[in-house]
């Protein structure tokens, strides 16, 4: 294992040195996110990533993993509809993409390689329209 990949075997709680505990009044989505924050990120499924990214959990760790899954299948269905993971990744705010130019470039290439399908299946946020 490459030393730079050690982070993949840690949970979000470990990576962020932060602990979340569910409260009885938390929604089911919040409880799911808290439970997923305790799982090593390498074990997160496309569905798990979709939920966590959609709830604005740390994109620095989650978006690279999501992009790996999208490279295998750009329109992977993560519980809701084909392309739901893609949609949540594209909804990550522009400042993240501006800080992570390599990831931005990867996403642009994937979108451009299937531009017709993307345009017909996904409502692209303004940042990605070009």
TrEMBL record:
<dbReference type="InterPro" id="IPR040547">
    <property type="entry name" value="CdiI"/>
</dbReference>
<protein>
    <submittedName>
        <fullName>Uncharacterized protein</fullName>
    </submittedName>
</protein>
<dbReference type="Pfam" id="PF18616">
    <property type="entry name" value="CdiI_3"/>
</dbReference>
């Amino acid at each position: 294992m490459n030393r730079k990949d050690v982070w993949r075997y840690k949970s979000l709680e470990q990576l962020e040195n932060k602990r979340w505990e569910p409260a009885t009044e938390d929604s089911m989505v919040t409880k799911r996110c808290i439970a997923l924050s305790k799982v090593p990120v390498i074990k997160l499924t496309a569905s798990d990533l979709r939920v966590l990214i959609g709830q604005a959990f740390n994109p620095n760790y989650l978006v690279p993993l999501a992009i790996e899954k999208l490279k295998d299948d750009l329109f992977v269905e993560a519980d809701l509809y084909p392309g739901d993971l893609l949609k949540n990744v594209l909804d990550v705010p522009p400042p993240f993409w501006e800080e992570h130019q390599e990831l931005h470039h990867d996403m642009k290439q994937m979108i451009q390689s299937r531009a017709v399908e993307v345009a017909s299946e996904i409502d692209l946020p303004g940042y990605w329209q070009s």
